[in-house]
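Researcher: Here's the sequence for the chain we discussed earlier.
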Amino acid sequence: MKMPCPTADELTRLLDGDVAEHRAVTLREHANSCPACQAELHRGQRLLTRIATPLADSRPADMEGVMRRLGSRPPLAPPSARPRWKIAAATLSALAASLCVLTLVPKQVETDFQPRG
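Model: Thanks. This is the structure I predict for it:
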């Protein structure tokens, strides 16, 4: 009897070593007899190999180009030298708008109060 194909998530957990050993044996046996699952496992293994390969070893010329471009940029001004007037203006504008709303909205007065006694 042929086992149904496992989900991609289950094959990923197999590659990560996150399945029980008896289930891993069953999955590997199935992958040996199923070309689709075997191909999926090979793709996953190739991806893990590419992820594990350090970037600097694979393309040092690219890294040097990036570092050259970063070195050619002028340095940023320190935070204390940056203008803060934009933040202050936005804060004051929000405060002024809040005060306008509070002063222009009419207050509701309850008129059905009847004092006793």
